[in-house]
Amino acid sequence: MPPRSAERFHIIEQAACFACGPNHPHGLRLVFAADVEGNQVAQWTASPTWEGFAGVIHGGILATLADEAMAKAVVTQGWEAMTGELQIRYLTPVPVGTDLVICGKIVRQRKRLIYAEATIHKSDGTVCLRAKSTFVIVPGASIAP
């Protein structure tokens, strides 16, 4: 399959995005904002809809939260990039009903790669998950900053 051209593969906000789209009927509907350090932060409450084991939020949902936080950090800096690699370290189970804070930040950028990190923690500060990701700038996209 031939690679897609930059014109056909322009990354923009998607109203139907599972993670952040307001129009996705079953989505997470995350809303991110920059904190004083420029990190992208969202708050989210883990409902039973996202349960894996009884009473515990599914790890794949937590991975999605972290990936989206890092992606938002990348996009808000003007880069058009996609997740190339994602590493997750689960530190503690997240019970249903837990209020979470999701934070994503850019660590560095080198050529066409952007390195980002995310954390998910409970409102009491307990870190539940740490993530690292490498984003690949879309071929043909302009490189920001």
Question: Number of helical runs?
Answer: 1
Could you name the CATH class?
Answer: Alpha Beta
The CATH architecture can be given as Roll
| Fraction in helix | 10-25%
CATH superfamily annotation = Hotdog Thioesterase
End-to-end distance, in Å? 32 Å
Could you give the count of β-strands?
6
What is the overall pLDDT average? 84
Order of helices and strands: EEHEEEE
Uncertain segments are 1-11
Query: Would you tell me the structural class of the helices and strands?
Result: mainly beta
CATH topology: Thiol Ester Dehydrase, Chain A
Proportion of residues in β-strands: 35-45%
Gross morphology is globular
**Rg over C-alpha atoms, rounded to the nearest angstrom:** 16 Å
Lateral arrangement of strands in the main beta sheet: 1-2-4-5-6-3
Domain tally: 1
How is the main sheet built?
A: 6 strands, antiparallel
Describe the structure.
The protein has 145 residues and is mainly beta. It has 1 helix and 6 strands, in the order E-E-H-E-E-E-E. A 6-stranded antiparallel β-sheet has the order 1-2-4-5-6-3, with helices on one face. The protein is globular, with a radius of gyration of 16 Å.
